[in-house]
Design a protein that fits this description.
The complex is a heterodimer of chains A (about 280) and B (about 475).
Chain A: E1 4-9, E2 12-14, H1 21-27, H2 31-38, E3 43-45, H3 47-65, E4 70-77, H4 83-91, E5 95-99, H5 109-123, E6 127-131, H6 142-150, E7 154-164, E8 167-174, E9 177-183, E10 187-191, H7 204-209, E11 216-218, H8 220-223, H9 227-232, H10 258-276
Parallel strand pairs in A: 1-4, 1-6, 4-5, 5-11, 6-10, 7-10
Antiparallel strand pairs in A: 2-3, 7-8, 8-9
Helix pairs in contact in A: 1-2, 5-6
Chain B: H1 5-16, E1 21-22, H2 25-30, H3 38-42, E2 53-55, H4 60-73, E3 77-80, E4 98-101, E5 108-112, E6 117-121, H5 126-134, E7 138-139, H6 152-157, H7 165-168, H8 171-174, E8 175-181, E9 187-190, H9 203-206, E10 215-222, E11 224-225, E12 232-238, H10 241-253, E13 260-264, H11 266-272, E14 282-288, H12 292-307, E15 313-315, H13 317-324, H14 331-344, E16 346-356, H15 360-374, E17 378-385, E18 388-389, E19 392-402, H16 411-429, H17 448-452, H18 456-466
Parallel strand pairs in B: 2-4, 3-4
Antiparallel strand pairs in B: 1-2, 5-6, 6-10, 7-11, 8-9, 8-10, 12-14, 12-15, 13-14, 13-17, 16-19, 17-19, 18-19
Helix pairs in contact in B: 1-4, 15-16
Chain lengths: ~280, ~475
């Protein structure tokens, strides 16, 4: 049985939960306003990436129970803000790497995907796990474009991965259906709403054991990626973000009879909504 | 002859009415613990005796009748309102206890902007009272992290403190008067006056009694003018907790009253501030508030003090303001934390103590090192000081561990209690207090005699006098 190397690409994002409504409005009014509004917010793992990182650890553990060797590498296209997260991942058994971009890659899926694909080639990884999407304004295109650049199949909406002899048994969702596929790497797996969504936590002793570990730092040049050229090939450009008003309120629907109440409910509250669908 | 469970339920139904007595098994099982054994509720594995019923009295008269009946029949009563306790104070330590839940007594009786005080029943959520005060441009000044979910009765009963305590004080500084019911059914009202010297301050028999002496039915608290537009936020990074304590001391000794004054150690800072603090950085932060002149003078004074320490590196105030705006725990955060524990078995616990300026850093260093050395599976060991006084400060130990090799029901015995033990030992050794603001509950009750020393006589006498039959929250403050 051959060893398997799994690469997981992850992104560190602002903790949008920590933003007040006023900051949200500012964050969602456009590209530059977004950057300003989230500058002072603490960083967290993108939730889908966090699930991908834990799924990879569980796949490693499951393979180890069968005597199968697995190595893990985690990387992020990011600045130094990703380093504390990479240290945590090293303590969990990942090798850590960071691709330092020379341009702002927020809302730039094509350029990001080129870097992700190139990093995967450089760092190795028959299986590339990525989160399906990231924060507000994310297109969800990166896994598809990275798979295309790597010349690999991509399974979207992955919710579980298990070892199956030489292969992997992958559970994923397509529309409202859950499907299971047995595949042979190489492949790209885009992790969606997995039940396992939270990363385990290393102990202080785990951290101490890797305190001398080095985070590999790569530049686009190291990877042979011309970022400005890649940016010029972006299929679309973000020109603005708007928050969707999801506020709710309760009202008492009046009427002398159930029929009158139903009519009032339809006329006053449902008709306009139904017409917008 | 103790009453049967059926007789207890029947007795309660006669007093508060059948609709106000809950006997649903799931509710009872969940009510057998509080957040001290929160893993038992998260994983639905329970080990504590199941209460006989949860009773929800509608008014003070019903509370008095329940306590009279319980006292006559030797039924253990556990007073509760918002159920946010963290130290086992709401655990049913003995079988067939009654949870006397004041959450249905939730009327804001009066907001009096002229006399700057508000009266409310015990089951009023602090957030509700705060919202009402804000309608008048006022604030309670009380803001524990549990503000959205905690109720006024419980906050007074546990001697709560809020995040702005350095300016407004703890709940004991805010309570003007109150009403409480004692086991024999005696209803006592302490009137609302600015101050009096008519003997001992009997408010303090009630404040912090943790349901071990009486049931609080109503409280009157002070109100303060609210000037959020004047808030000034200040923050620094530094490499040494000892220096952080020194700066806090300088600020307090020089008479400044910031509403928030904190120093975080590197571990704790890593949770909140890793987007601007290095892994070995401590974070020192302040918020000045109040009328414009006061807020500005406070901020200027603090700035001048910290400027005398070139080891402190100032950070943009927006970092501190953004952190501040996300401080409180609401229901969604509690649900998210429970899910994280369920998936990762990584548990966050806290223990808060206080000591004078001479001892606090030693206690922090000694306890931290012992916990790292002696307790397995620790994933983060740190803490912060968040409530300072002219003569000392508190230390809020904040720690995480993975629950490994034992079931969720054994988490307290394997990890939590041994950690509490270390912190209590190191604190008592240096003359500090083992509880700053969470209450003794049942978790820290084993250390009560060491905590009180010779004054334990007074505590024991209070318990014997007010609760001679021992029916009030057995095992809380004074162990079984």
């Amino acid at each position: 049985m051959t060893a398997l190397r799994i690469a997981v690409g992850f992104k560190v994002t602002p903790d949008y939960e920590a933003l007040r409504p006023a900051d949200w409005a500012r964050a969602a009014t456009g590209h530059s306003a977004h950057g300003e509004a989230v500058r002072y917010v603490r960083r967290v793992f993108n939730v889908f990436d966090e699930a991908a990182l834990e799924l990879a650890l569980r796949l490693r553990d499951a393979r180890a129970e069968r005597g199968l060797e697995t190595s893990l590498v985690a990387f992020s296209v990011a600045g130094r803000e990703a380093d504390p997260f990479l240290v945590t991942l090293q303590a969990l058994g990942y090798e850590g790497a960071r691709v330092e971009p020379d341009a702002d890659l927020d809302f730039a899926p094509a350029a990001t995907a080129e870097l992700v694909a190139a990093a995967t080639r450089r760092l190795g990884g028959e299986v590339l796990l990525l989160g399906s999407r990231c924060g507000p304004g994310d297109t969800g295109l990166v896994p598809f474009l990275a798979a295309e650049a790597l010349g690999r199949p991509n399974l979207p909406g992955v919710t579980a991965v298990e070892p199956a002899a030489d292969r992997l048994r992958v559970t994923f969702s397509a529309g409202d259906r859950a499907l299971r596929a047995t595949i042979t790497p190489p492949c790209v797996l885009a992790v969606g709403n997995a039940l396992v969504s939270m990363l385990r936590v290393p102990t202080l002793k785990d951290r101490l054991a890797v305190r001398d570990s080095v985070i590999t730092t790569l530049t686009p040049e190291d990877l042979g990626v011309d970022v400005p050229a890649a940016l010029s090939r972006e299929p679309s450009a973000l020109v603005g973000l708007e928050t969707i008003d999801r506020s709710r309120a309760g009202v008492v629907v009046g009427g002398a009879t159930p029929g009158e109440e139903a009519r009032a409910l339809y006329e006053e509250h449902l008709r306009a909504r139904l017409e917008r669908i | 002859m103790p009453l049967s469970r059926e007789a207890i339920v029947e007795g309660l139904r006669r007093i508060v009415g059948p609709d106000a007595v809950v006997t649903d098994e799931k509710v009872l099982v969940e009510s057998s613990v509080d957040n001290f054994r929160k893993l038992q509720n998260i994983f639905d594995v329970h080990t504590m005796p199941v209460p006989a019923a949860v009773a929800l009295p509608a008014d003070t008269a019903q509370v008095a009748r329940v306590l009279t009946w319980a006292n006559d029949n030797g039924v253990n009563v556990i007073p509760r309102t918002g159920a946010t306790a963290t130290e086992g104070g709401l655990e049913s330590a003995v079988p067939d206890s009654v949870i006397l839940d004041g959450s249905a007594m939730n009327e804001i009786v009066k907001v009096d902007p002229y006399n700057m005080q508000a009266t409310c029943q015990c089951g009023v959520p602090l957030q509700a009272l705060e919202d009402r005060a804000r309608e008048h441009g006022l604030t309670t000044g009380h803001s524990p992290q549990s503000k959205p979910v905690a109720h006024m009765g419980g906050l007074v009963a546990t001697r709560s403190i809020g995040q702005f305590s350095t300016l407004y004080g703890g709940i004991e500084d805010m309570v003007v008067g109150l009403e409480a019911v004692f086991p024999g059914g005696e209803v006592c009202r302490i009137k609302n006056v600015p101050r009096r010297a008519a003997g001992p301050d009997i408010r303090h028999i009630v404040i912090g009694n943790e349901g071990a002496l009486c049931f609080i039915t109503e409280v009157t608290v002070k109100l303060f003018p609210y000037f959020p537009e004047n808030n000034v936020f200040l923050g620094w990074t530094l490499k040494d907790m000892g220096l952080g304590f020194e700066v806090l001391r300088d600020v307090m000794v020089n008479g400044y009253k910031p509403s928030v004054a904190r120093v975080y150690d590197p571990g704790d800072a890593g949770i909140h501030f890793s987007h601007f603090a290095a892994p070995d950085d401590c974070v020192l932060l302040f918020m000045a508030e109040g009328a414009a002149g006061i807020a500005k003078a406070t901020a200027d004074g603090i700035q001048a003090i910290v400027d005398q320490h070139p080891e402190c590196t100032q950070v943009p105030s927006e970092y501190i303001e953004t952190w501040f705006n996300d401080l409180c725990w609401d229901a969604s955060k509690i649900i998210a934390e429970d899910e994280r524990i369920r998936q990762t078995r990584n548990v966050n616990r806290t223990t808060e103590i206080s000591a004078d300026w001479s001892s606090i850093n030693e206690i922090y260093q000694a306890a931290k090192q012992r916990i790292i050395d002696e307790i397995p599976d620790i994933t983060m060991m740190g803490g912060h000081s968040s409530h300072s006084y002219i003569n000392g400060t508190n230390m809020y130990f904040n720690y995480f561990f993975n629950v490994v090799g034992v079931g969720p029901e054994e988490e307290t015995e394997k990890y939590y209690l041994p950690i509490i033990g270390i912190i209590c030992e190191e604190t008592l050794k240096r003359g500090g207090s083992i509880v700053h603001h969470h209450g003794m509950g049942k978790a820290r009750a084993p250390w009560v005699k060491d905590e009180y020393g010779s004054s334990y006589f007074m505590l024991e006498t209070l318990k014997r006098s007010f609760d001679p039959n021992g029916v009030m929250n057995k095992g809380t403050i004074i162990p079984l």
